[in-house]
Amino acid sequence: IINHAAKMLYMSGGEFKVPIVFRGPNGSAFQVSSQHSQALEAFYANFPGLKVVMPSTAADAKGLLKSAIRDDNPVIFMEQERMYGMKGEVPEDEDFTIPLGVADIKREGKDCTIVARSMTVPMALEAAEKMQQEFDVSVEVIDPRTIKPLDIDTIVASIKKTNRLVIAEESHSFASVGAEITYQVMDHAFDYLDAPIKRVSTVEAPMPYAKNLEAAALPSVDKIIAAVKEVCYI
Length: 234
Fold this sequence. Notes:
CATH topology of the largest domain: Rossmann fold
Structural class: alpha/beta
CATH architecture of the largest domain: 3-Layer(aba) Sandwich
Low-confidence stretches: none
Helix content: 25-40%
Number of strands: 9
Order of helices and strands: HEHEHEEEHEEHEHEHH
Strand content: 15-25%
């Protein structure tokens, strides 16, 4: 994937396209322990020539997968195994597509922005609802959907409105997609921030097998709520 698919277009001077989709599970599952719980999106996103997609709903999965198949570039299509049983409405239109590189505002808000992807999107939405009900804090939730290319413009526009940012991701925090988003926000919207950026990630350790330890290692609704309260000084 890295040595050939990602580089063939460049090495052939634009002559050979590689329209291929690599689709599979990513991140943790249910008690599969350390050797089957890697979140690899940042690894693949580091290599020029690859596109990286992470859907969070059934409709997004359909629309993004169709766009990925029609793309002339190699696409890494990453699905969270814990989400395979989730149900949702899916457009019946066979030509329904979602453009790669376009983020989706899953919930509009004015007091804080949460950028979440894949498994953490439903967590972020639940956290946003609880913050609204319990603290009257209006939280905007943005799902990038495509990790590379990253729609940083939508994220920056949200921060210019809310002035606060929480990033929720399943991967480890070091050298993650969240770290890249943090840098880009600091580069493009630092003057709009009213609080330090907070990140909710998986702990820096191999994934435990025990159910209680696994839950403690992963992001959660409560951890996201705590981060939002911190940036909102609650």
